[in-house]
């Protein structure tokens, strides 16, 4: 409440500088909002000079203070407060305000030297050009302005590097992040910078360079586990399965251990880079995976690579984590590595089938079927709804707005896939009649798909693929049972869904041949297998990738090449050609 006095103002501003640093250092959390203490200090300086600036914003207030307050003994305290103000603005990503402030704090000569360096970042140039005020022996500082300047340079380079990375300007991002890596920061922040450098190099199409940066991050701080997850992602991109699995295994083990208490880089450094850099892109890059996510990735990669026994083990471990309460462990949002839970169960069933555990696969699928039975209508009509906005998912059995249609389609696909897997499992167990029953349950669904939006196209394609595989599977079992006419109808229907599908076409030829309709069989053979060789392959390559839980079903539906059938058809065609010529 005392009026501002010029003789006491240097001490007052220095005490304010130290107290703000103590406040920041003791909170150990990111800086947010404005520094009200700095504003009060600037107003006190203006009051001492007979001026006021209550109605000014912070940028205008700084401009007025540096113009009005010209006393030599106040320049050093004001410059130190200016560096603190820059820290607050950096934390708010107000990079333009920081640059403008340092232009006010620097002389024309200093700014001239900064602009001489062509190609250098403007913000970094003006911060580096700022001359740190000398420290008076009678007014000790809890953190020197020189250290604060170094931290500001590192944070400015880091922040700008992240902005350029998010914008897709990778060479500029790489340069700025390299600048930040050479700055003044803790090991924790240095490891984060190297992790960001690795992600940048990966996006530039330089996986080996990315690995070097990510390994450097782990050398600096092995507790930087996001770097290890990015290492696994790079190895996955390179197709180095063993290295990827090793990285994921290390990550899972590290997540299971209690990390040591995070120690500050130095007890004497109150303002640190980590307090200034907290952007969404950094949060995304450094997102810490949960053990359940990593366990799922291990299972998924093993299944994709054909390591069935390992896949089953990892999937069962994951299911045990699921029983412990997965939703408390990991946020099921767009950033999670986990798919929807029914899809995980279907992948487990696929792994169990491939491992020969068919009864277990049937049990897992029954869980999916029972959980989705009441969530979908018996007949689902899917169409574009232009007259209704998207709305929340209604109650079970309803198919109202666009979002409920999508959810209903997902539930329908999961239930249909459950019956599909059960059909294949019973077929492997040698029970063709039960297999036919399960395939028929899937085919009993009615889903009328009119022209739909892109939002629903993926779900519709998956449903059509499941229907195709169910028809082929049931047709195969009809052949096993000697019911050749019913098999023929299923294969004909399959080709209506997917014209030119090689498996359906091959089984169609086989069914016709078994029915002694040799002329038709030979004609279909010539149509599908002696036409343009690239045509069928082109059709097969179209569309989106199949969900992982359907890959094994697709492999089981493939037609095993039959040398006797091919030879018989060729002989028949040869004989027919001779009869024609004679």
From TrEMBL:
Key words of the record: TPR repeat
SUPFAM superfamilies in the record: TPR-like
GO biological process, one term: interstrand cross-link repair
Gene Ontology cellular-component terms listed: Fanconi anaemia nuclear complex
Name of a matching Pfam family: TPR_8
PANTHER family according to UniProt: FANCONI ANEMIA GROUP G PROTEIN, FANCONI ANEMIA GROUP G PROTEIN FAMILY MEMBER
Name this polypeptide is given: FANCG protein
Organism: Oxylabes madagascariensis (white-throated Oxylabes)
């Amino acid at each position: 409440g005392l009026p501002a006095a010029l003789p006491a103002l240097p001490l007052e501003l220095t005490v304010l500088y130290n107290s703000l640093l103590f406040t920041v250092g003791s909170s150990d959390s990111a800086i947010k909002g404005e520094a009200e203490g700095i504003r009060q200090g600037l107003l006190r300086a203006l009051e001492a000079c007979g001026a006021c600036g209550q109605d000014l914003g912070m940028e205008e207030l700084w401009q007025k203070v540096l113009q009005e307050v010209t006393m030599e003994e106040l320049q050093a305290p004001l410059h130190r407060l200016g560096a603190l103000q820059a820290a607050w603005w950096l934390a708010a990503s107000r990079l333009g305000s920081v640059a403008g402030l340092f232009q006010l704090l620097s002389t024309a000569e200093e700014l001239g030297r900064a602009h001489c360096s062509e190609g250098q970042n403007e913000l970094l140039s003006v911060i580096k050009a700022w001359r740190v005020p000398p420290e008076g022996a009678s007014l000790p500082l809890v953190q020197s302005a020189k250290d604060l300047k170094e931290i500001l340079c590192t944070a400015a380079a880091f922040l700008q590097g992240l902005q350029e990375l998010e914008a897709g300007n990778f060479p500029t991002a790489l340069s700025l992040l390299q600048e930040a890596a050479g700055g003044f920061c803790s090991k924790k922040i240095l490891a984060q910078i190297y992790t960001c450098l690795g992600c940048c190099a990966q996006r530039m199409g330089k996986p080996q360079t990315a690995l070097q940066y990510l390994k450097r991050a782990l050398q600096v701080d092995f507790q930087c586990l996001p770097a290890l997850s990015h290492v696994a992602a790079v190895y996955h991109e390179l197709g180095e399965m063993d290295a990827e699995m090793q990285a994921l295994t290390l990550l899972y083990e590290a997540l299971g251990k209690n990390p040591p208490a995070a120690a500050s880089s130095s007890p004497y450094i109150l303002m640190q880079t980590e307090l200034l850099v907290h952007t969404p892109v950094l949060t995304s890059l450094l997102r810490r995976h949960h053990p359940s996510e990593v366990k799922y990735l291990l299972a998924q990669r093993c299944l994709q690579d054909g390591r069935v026994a390992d896949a089953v083990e990892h999937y069962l471990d994951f299911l045990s984590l699921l029983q412990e309460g997965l939703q408390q462990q990991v946020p099921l949002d767009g950033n999670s590595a986990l798919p929807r839970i029914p899809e995980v169960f279907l992948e487990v069933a696929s792994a169990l089938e491939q491992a020969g555990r068919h009864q277990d696969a049937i049990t897992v699928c029954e869980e999916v079927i029972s959980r989705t039975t009441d969530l979908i209508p018996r007949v689902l009509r899917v169409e574009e709804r232009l007259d209704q906005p998207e709305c929340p998912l209604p109650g079970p059995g309803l198919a109202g707005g666009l979002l409920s249609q999508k959810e209903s389609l997902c539930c329908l696909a999961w239930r249909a896939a459950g019956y599909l897997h059960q059909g294949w499992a019973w077929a492997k167990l040698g029970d063709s009649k039960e297999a036919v029953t399960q395939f028929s349950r899937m085919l009993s669904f009615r889903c009328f798909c009119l022209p739909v939006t892109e939002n629903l196209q993926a779900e519709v394609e998956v449903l059509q693929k499941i229907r195709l595989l169910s028809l082929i599977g049931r047709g195969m079992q009809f052949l096993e049972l000697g019911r050749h006419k019913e098999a023929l109808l299923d294969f004909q229907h399959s080709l209506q869904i997917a014209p030119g599908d090689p498996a359906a076409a091959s089984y169609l030829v086989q069914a016709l041949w078994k029915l002694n309709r040799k002329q038709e069989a030979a004609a279909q053979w010539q149509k599908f297998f002696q036409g343009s060789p690239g045509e069928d392959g082109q059709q097969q390559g179209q569309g989106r990738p199949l969900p992982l839980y359907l890959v094994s079903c697709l492999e089981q539906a493939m037609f095993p090449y039959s040398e006797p059938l091919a030879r018989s058809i060729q002989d028949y065609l040869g004989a027919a050609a001779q009869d024609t010529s004679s």
